[in-house]
């Protein structure tokens, strides 16, 4: 025989029921909807967070959402480039890419990094398919003309053709996309992964685009901004509060929102299950940008 023992406050049945109801309401609204997740930063490097990522994305899939992963992999590209005697150079957060850097970027991003993410998701029980932005002519790119520097084979996106992604989603796969595009000239281009994620979200008319990164969200005066409008975000770029790797993320979020994506979020990939709390509870953990 066992008697009912008092439970700690977080296991109180009323609290648990309320949380469950809250989550169920969100789950209903998400069924069949596309969520583009940019996977970058420390979440991609540290083993303990890799497993959390795979488990969470697999859970979203089993709840009926249609996740699409777009990944970065800058640190791994730099590591391999160094073993080939190349010195990584950046201008405005963009990797200057000569022909040797380009070969390494494509090999690392569309090869090792892409397949590691696919393996992680498959191990967690999903069916993931790794493709690059070149496959099915998904990312059509052209050379990015920088005002002061020649960045080499860094591309900007002309158009995203979402047909291949939609075909994979329809068959129940999770597409995992590396940020490599091709030009009319058959030239390969290295694309910033944040830019790729936001253009893909726009082309898919995704419900959400979520950036997993190595900070909790947009920081200002040592605090995380939980919500801001598009015009406030533009102001923070102009004043220099948002800079470096955060700039292409926020610019991409603004473009995605303008193109009809319903919401855009930045969360930490180092908070266990931040993805789940952002999606299924009333209180998100990171930054959300809303349309003006
Ligand atoms: N206002 C800001 N708030 C938060 N982070 C900022 C801000 N301004 C600049 N940053 C920088 O942006 C970084 C996140 O972008 P970063 O490009 O380094 O990561 P990522 O895009 O997640 O990874 P990857 O580029 O490898 O895909 C933060 O670590 C921080 O240094
Ligand atoms: Mg980045």
TrEMBL record:
Binding positions for substrate per the UniProt entry: 73-74, 95, 190
Aspartate/glutamate/uridylate kinase domain boundaries: 34-268
Compartments in which it is found: Cytoplasm
GO terms, molecular function: acetylglutamate kinase activity; ATP binding
EC number: 2.7.2.8
One biological process term in Gene Ontology: L-arginine biosynthetic process via ornithine
Source organism, top-level taxon: Bacteria
Catalytic activities: N-acetyl-L-glutamate + ATP = N-acetyl-L-glutamyl 5-phosphate + ADP
Site (Transition state stabilizer): 38, 249
Keyword match Transferase: yes
Function statement: Catalyzes the ATP-dependent phosphorylation of N-acetyl-L-glutamate.
Protein name, as recorded: Acetylglutamate kinase
Organism from which the protein derives: Candidatus Lambdaproteobacteria bacterium RIFOXYD2_FULL_50_16
Gene field: argB
């Amino acid at each position: 025989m066992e008697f009912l023992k008092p439970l700690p406050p977080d296991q109180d049945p009323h609290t648990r029921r309320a949380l469950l109801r809250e989550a169920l309401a969100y789950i209903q609204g998400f069924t069949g909807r596309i969520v583009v997740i940019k996977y970058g930063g420390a979440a991609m490097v540290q083993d303990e967070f890799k497993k959390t990522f795979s488990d969470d994305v697999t859970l979203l899939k089993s709840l009926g959402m249609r996740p699409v992963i777009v990944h970065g992999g800058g640190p791994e590209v730099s590591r391999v480039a160094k073993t080939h005697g190349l010195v990584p150079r950046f201008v405005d957060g963009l990797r200057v890419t000569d022909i040797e850097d380009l070969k390494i970027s494509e090999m690392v991003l569309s090869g090792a990094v892409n397949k590691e993410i696919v393996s992680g998701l498959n191990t967690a029980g999903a069916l993931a398919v790794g493709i690059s932005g070149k496959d099915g002519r998904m990312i059509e790119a052209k050379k990015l003309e920088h005002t002061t520097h020649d960045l080499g084979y860094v591309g900007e996106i002309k158009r995203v053709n979402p047909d291949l992604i939609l075909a994979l989603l329809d068959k129940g796969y999770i597409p995992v996309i590396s940020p490599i595009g091709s030009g009319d000239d058959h030239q390969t281009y290295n694309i910033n992964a944040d830019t790729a994620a936001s253009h893909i979200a726009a082309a898919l008319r995704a419900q959400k685009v979520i950036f997993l990164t190595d900070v909790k969200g947009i920081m200002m005066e040592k605090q995380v901004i939980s919500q801001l409008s598009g015009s406030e975000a533009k102001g923070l770029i102009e004043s220099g509060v948002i800079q470096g790797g955060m700039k292409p993320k926020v610019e991409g979020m603004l473009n995605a929102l303008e193109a009809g994506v319903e919401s855009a979020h930045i969360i930490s990939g180092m908070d266990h299950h931040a993805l789940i709390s952002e999606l299924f509870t009333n209180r998100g953990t990171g930054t959300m940008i809303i349309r003006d």
